[in-house]
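Need Gingipain domain-containing protein's 3D structure for a figure. Predict it.
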Amino acid sequence: MKELSVIYYSERLKKKYSKKIISSIQDIFVATGNSVQFIEVEDSSRSRVRKYIETECSDSIVIIIGGEEVFPFEKIKSQVDDGDEFVNTDNWWASFGKDITIPQIEITRMPDGEDETEKSFLKMIEDSMIKNKIEAKEKFGITAEIWRKAAENVFAHLRSQGEILSSPPHTSISKLEFDKFEGGLYFNLHGGEQECGWYGQRGKLSSYKEEYPLALEPKNLSKGIKNGFIASEACYGAFINRKRNDDSIMLTALRSGVSFCIGSTSTAYGTYAPPLSEADMLVSIFFDEFLKKKNASLAFLNAKRIFAQRNIEKNGFLDDDDKKTLAEFVMYGNPLTEVKDE
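Structure prediction for Gingipain domain-containing protein:
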């Protein structure tokens, strides 16, 4: 079993919640049966803690506790001139040296919403960590109509039964039921920094009136999912700064039966049709690695490494879009989740 290195800002957690929350969090992770070490971080000790992770935790899984308010993301200058001044990333804690483009150890985050209560936060962590096994026989997806060809290619990497809807014509008012769903959820949609939902986009030859229909909202997932995971390519799909739980699809999903999510904290890139690149390529590789029965955080780490390797082999270097993709994609939730044996 892999060692878990749980890192947190003790004073920030106690300020937002109570003095008891630290021991409660520790109890949850100890109950997993894994070897666990708990590492407190202060603003003045960040570099020392990072060095300790490099020397003592290189074979463990780093788990960050909290969202922006209680454990701020590392903010790096955007590699692309696309309107994003900074990119929120967790690569800083999983990379050693000045170059944090390609992480070297497994990492995830247990995020909390701006309106989180101590009880609901602890329940989310506990519920997520219980779900270590997941069926991979079912899948569901929604893509912007204009990206259908690329999305279908990515979706095919989730080798299971299921359908991918196009938006339009699909919209968030369509009824979606996940109470019996157990598998992968894939979304290739538009998102925005201040948006709660994700949007489709009509194709070039589409007769649909609305160009960017609302395709998915947090409430579409709030009724509960039996057991699943989410991979989203939406711009800002994993951006949770200053967001309440019901303002974020990922925060809602983690409280509704999803064991983990991967997504982008800023503007993401892809293509209209194969060959795949950027977010499309990264997510497709993640699906491949996860279905090899690697735990979620290892599959995610491998996906970033393979993504970098393929692009270097093809182009001789990583371009700015590649570097941003590697930095902006993060994981939330249970890093130990893996596919059940058949």
